[in-house]
Amino acid sequence: MSGAILLADHGSRRAEANEQVEALAQILRDRIADTIVEIAHLELLPPDMTTAIDRCVQQGATGIIVLPYFLGPGRHTRKDIPEAIEAGRQRHPGVEIRMAEPLGIHEKVIDLLLERIEQASRD
Amino acid sequence: MSGAILLADHGSRRAEANEQVEALAQILRDRIADTIVEIAHLELLPPDMTTAIDRCVQQGATGIIVLPYFLGPGRHTRKDIPEAIEAGRQRHPGVEIRMAEPLGIHEKVIDLLLERIEQASRD
Questions:
Q1: Which residues in chain A are contacts of B23 at CB distance < 8 A?
Q2: Which terminus of chain A has a smaller tally of CB atoms within 10 A, N or C?
Q3: pTM for the complete prediction?
Q4: How far is Cα of residue B108 from the mean position of the Cα atoms in its chain?
Q5: Cβ contacts of A26 within 8 Å, gap of 6 or more
Q6: ipTM of this predicted structure
Q7: SS3 A63
Q8: A39 near A47, Cβ under 8 Å?
Q9: Closest-CA distance of chain A to residue B34, Å
């Protein structure tokens, strides 16, 4: 099976935010061998989920994992992304599309929040 | 100095999302001794930043660290939160209010994203 990761974020009008997501996609490409990595923005700017799913398939992906770049559950991760996945399955019946969980409250996130607090109190 | 952490998130209409932020605030209370921890939602539901800053001060905080529960830079972390902090400083001249950085692309976040991909491919 040829695999793809679809990194799905909120989208922002700020170049800084979008550059960060592009940088993250490149990190995933470097870390996961032989995997297509595409980006989708849920709001504000292209590519949208439909375009991004189709791009993965056009590159030969037969399995796609949609990776929400969101901290918690919300409308995008509980409604918009699942609906776009369902539509993608209908367009591409031979392609397996799964969604990963958003980051959530995880020890690694808590550690990093504590680190950010520590930095702010030092400055 | 009596310190407070103001955990500022996007806000959601979904109970699941807001419960997660409440749970995270409780974790911060448990981890950081003698610190006031308040929540603010940038959108959709109270308390807003103004209310949350004032709550910290009413409880005796003379120093507040605003901790954005956001992955990356965007309008909320680059404009809305800094403006609310500036307004808070004007209302409470004796109180030092600082902002921590959003989580950003950090090795801990990358690790957790890879873990979420791994979980989704196993399911």
A1: 105
A2: N
A3: 0.90
A4: 18
A5: A37
A6: 0.93
A7: strand
A8: yes
A9: 15
